[in-house]
Amino acid sequence: MSKILIIEDEAAIRRVLRKIISEENENYQVEEVEDGLLGIEMIKNNDYDLVLCDIKMPKMDGVEVLEKAKKIKPETPIVMISGHGDLDTAVNTMRLGAFDYISKPPDLNRLLNTVRNALDRKSLVVENKRLKKKVSKNYQMVGDSVAIVHIKEMIEKVAPTDARVLITGPNGSGKELVAHWLHEKSLRFKAPMIEVNCAAIPSELIESELFGHVKGSFTGANKDRAGKFEAANGGTIFLDEIGDMSLSAQAKVLRALQENKIARVGSDKDIKVNVRVIAATNKNLKTEIAEGRFREDLYHRLAVILIEIPNLNDRREDIPLLVNFFVKKIAEQQGEAEKKFSEKAIQRLQEYDWTGNIRELRNVVERLIILGEAEVSENDVKLFASK
User: Among 131, 151, 184, where does a domain finish?
Assistant: First the structure.
């Protein structure tokens, strides 16, 4: 059953709208009110799948209703009803988040198509919200320290948007993990997430890797080849270690961000791309900018949202949870029973200097599981966790 609310001060228009919508589908439950104040109260107290709202009304006009409703129930699609003189205002409401607008008197086909599309959109948003909470077991973020809770909260806010994100932090701290969370909790989660390690690709090949090339554009280019930006179209591209990217490649990435276009190496033909960009680095990009190794304009394009990952030594309270997580994961992968770590063994691990961060902790836990006793003791940690 789809619940639909009509907010309209003209009784005749309300009747027409209700009749058309109710007769279209018996599963449409239609309610109506005659002004914006009552409409807002109804939206507060009910979960509607669609709201149709007039623009010119007494007490509270439709634009104000739209703005308030989007704060109360941001996922509910709102279709504006406009008179001829309200058309400019109706178009402006689209910028404010309205799903669509229909003109008075309503055209039957236009109205029903708009209602169907809006309800389909609501169903998709609800399904996405349900699914995006299920992040892959391979990319769970473990910890309840203040820093990690803050990062989780930021991801929940940022992931559903298309805002670009720059993730900073030392090697092994979990930057890739954060990137995967951002993608899997986004509305793009069904599309691919393409990862590019900028530090692992030779500088002379990075442009071809990112943007593709045409046959004959350089020695060894035996055929046309699409790049990572094209492969990520509709989804997310994760540019890891972007601080190691050459300046010429940075210039092309900047253009892709500014114009949503790329060109393959050796071609002057533009290719449109719709890609969300997430970048990560273990370098201080402001220092890199000052020393001429990184473009300041690209930095500001990438760092719309900045997420800083702490090193493990700054979140030692998360180590017991991380150890337990790795013990379960390793036992599952190896098909063996889980080993228990004594309290003193955990305490010893919390005192350790984790220069390699979470990556090092995982390696040490695996080593202790393989070489340690049935219950991993403090002595096992002393023996097998030393550098």
Answer: 131
